[in-house]
Amino acid sequence: MPSSAPSLVGPADDLTTEPAPQEGRRPRRIRHTPRSTLTRGAGLSLGIAMIWFSLLVLLPLAAIVAAAAEGGWSNYFHVVRDGQTWAAVTLTVTQAALVTVLNIVVGTIIAWVLVRDRFPGKALLDVIIDVPFALPTVVAGLVLLSLYGPKSPIGVHWAFTVKGVFLAFAFVTLPFIVRTVQPVLEELDVDVEEAAASLGASRGTILRRILLPALVPAIAAGAALSFARAISEYGSLVLLSGNRPFQTEVVSVRVLSFIENGSKASAAAVASLMLFVALVVIVGLDIVQRVVARRG
Amino acid sequence: MSIQVSNVTKTYGDFVALDDVSVTIPTGQLTALLGPSGGGKSTLLRVIAGLDSADTGAVSIEGNDATKLPPQKRNVGFVFQHYAVFKHMSVAKNVAFGLEIRHRSKAEVKQRVGELLELVHLSQFANRMPSQLSGGQRQRMALARALAVEPKVLLLDEPFGALDAKVRKELRDWLRRLHDEVHVTTVFVTHDQEEALEVADEIVVINQGRVEQIGAPDQLYDAPANDFVMGFLGEVTRLDGTLLRPHDVEVRTSPVSADSVEGTISRVLRVGFEVRLTVLTDAGEEVAVEMTRTNARSLGLTEGTTVWLNAAPGATTV
Q1: From the CA of A203, how many Å to the nearest CA of chain B?
Q2: Could you tell me which residues come within 8 angstroms of residue B186 by beta carbon, excluding any fewer than 6 positions away?
């Protein structure tokens, strides 16, 4: 301990009987931890995990990229230059982005209501949130079509329009941010907000400086899931969007039609393009999350 | 008078947390709100801070009516049992929070944070994250954060309740010295009578939503207003119908006066320097007695010994 206020000198000067946790990155010092801490059991688990992940994810993905690369750059160029494909890609990415923005706001609000408020039917709402997860996506399309389709009982005719695409995306991605934010919000103690309030922070300041930095990692994780789910959506759209080229045709439908027409190389090219988009968004959200969480 | 609580009542459904409580807390002193869990002392503290609102009654802080003021406008520092740290901010940023939202200049914030961290002995931890601090260090950080805005009163809700016994004792001594240095009117809630007796200038004993007694520690200990206060401030036992402390019971192996109570030792428990006896009197009362080991040995007390008990002269009784 450095020298302290003179009148406080005493045994309490060494208020250090309690060992402070020593890990952490702030005080930079040389670490002597080995690069790997794997025991035999842990090594086996890691091996199983990697084999499983490779079989299911890495190898198939590599195969797609390889298939796409077979045609060389000209194949990519050709596919992207195709107006109908490009329209499908931009429609999918734009609508997925819009839906993700909507989910960030609405999902966070729903999570807040579910955690912080008490009202009749709360437990029911908490369960119903997961319905879009549970429904087969074609059924989701059917559900939406019955309310917003040509025979809409409320007079909203959004089927076969871009709004229909948005609606389908919104439906299937609704739970993601709710479910990622909810546990984090439950962990947040109300006394932290009270502490900020008694220090003079207004509701807005508490939200901006205390709550959001704590929630942003969860929101970003949910947003990444939500976006990824949206750009890959197929089932709920086939009924609702009508798959009209240049208007409501999304990437997954486009890929399917490539395959049906026997043009596997084009399908692979579009698939790897979407893989790239998904990677960019996931990495981007991770960076945002790290920056915001650190700044506070 | 710094804090004036007048006729405050607060209920949660059927539960009456505060029942027409009036307390005056003097300026510059360290006051303890002492009582059992669920007795209403934390609620009273939260009502003073504005974190809970009273159903009826009034709170004034330094002569200004604060009954309707939100916590932001009361200028009180509040320290929570579980620290309530801002986890995503460094120690320095936590302490700076109140100053930053008041838009103080960077230089001023930096200087003030430096002073406060010095005061709570955390200077070398300024850039750490709260998760890298021990519980005691976190609580000192929370205290510095509360003091940063120069509050008129400092309120601590079971501040050492989540810490282990040794750290708790250290911090208790340290809080006393800190208070002697800073002189801010301080109110802390505790259910630990030893903590209250040791640290506080004045103790308010609260039980079942009511104030049982207000006074200096010695006053409460020597002249408890009722059975509850007597019992809450230390061990008690009953001898011949009178409530008194076990160490105020004198034990002899022969009767000294007509009012000596005869009994048989039914249990002997030795704890360090102390011997605790249970004496079964002929009238069927179980009396607890505490004495030093030396004393017990010189009298040759063992289970089954017949003894005569008297209240020591000058003992506090109710």
Answers
A1: 10
A2: B29, B30, B31, B153, B154, B155, B156, B179
List the single best residue of B85, B87, B91 to mutate versus A (max A Cβ within 10 A). B87
Q: How many CB pairs under 8 A join A and B?
A: 140
What would the two tokens of residue A49 be?
Answer: 């995990």
Task: Please state, in angstroms and rounded to a whole number, the distance separating the CA atoms of residues A211 and A184.
Answer: 10
Q: Does B217 touch chain A (CB under 8 A)?
A: no
Quick one: fold of A73-295? MetI-like fold (1.10.3720)
List the single residue in B with minimal CA-CA distance to A15: B170
Flag whether residue B177 sits within 8 Å of chain A, measured between CB atoms: yes
Q: What is the pLDDT, as a whole number, of residue A192?
A: 93
Determine the 3-state secondary structure of B41 from DSSP: helix
Q: Where are any strands of DSSP class E within B169-260?
A: 185-190, 202-207, 210-215, 237-239, 242-244, 249-252
Beta strands B202-207; B30-34: pairing state:
parallel
- Best of B45, B101, B104 to substitute, by most chain A Cβ atoms within 10 angstroms, is B101
How far does the CA of residue B144 sit from the closest CA of chain A (Å)? 12
Q: What whole-number distance in Å separates Cα of residue B120 and Cα of residue B178?
A: 8
Inter-chain residue contact A17 with B146, CB threshold 8 Å:
no
Residue A1 confidence (pLDDT): 39
Which amino acid, A10?
G
Per-residue tens of pLDDT for chain A, all 296 residues: 344 444 443 444 445 445 555 444 444 455 566 677 778 888 899 999 999 999 998 998 888 888 888 777 787 788 878 888 889 999 999 999 999 999 999 999 999 999 988 899 999 999 999 888 888 888 888 888 888 888 888 888 888 888 888 999 999 999 999 999 999 999 888 899 999 999 999 999 999 899 988 898 899 999 999 999 999 888 888 888 888 888 888 888 888 888 898 888 888 888 888 888 988 988 998 888 888 766 55
CB A79 within 8 A of CB A270: yes
The answer to whether B148 and B154 have CB atoms below 8 angstroms apart is no
Q: Which residues of A touch B128 (CB under 8 A)?
A: 24, 26-27
Q: Which residues contact B269 (CB under 8 A, 6 or more apart)?
A: B275, B276, B277
Listed residue (B193, B165, B214) closest to B25, CA to CA: B214
CB atoms within 10 A of CB A16: 14
What residues of B are in contact with residue A200 (Cβ under 8 Å)?
72-73, 75, 98, 101-102, 149
Report the distance separating Cα B87 and Cα B224, nearest Å. 44
List of chain A residues whose C-beta atoms are within 8 Å of the C-beta of residue B121:
1, 4, 8, 12-13, 15
Low-confidence ranges of chain B (pLDDT < 70): 1
The model's pTM is 0.77
User: Residue ranges per domain, chain A?
Assistant: 40-69, 73-295
**What was the ipTM of the complex prediction?**
0.85
Beta-carbon count within 10 A of B279 CB: 26
Beta bridge partners of B2: none
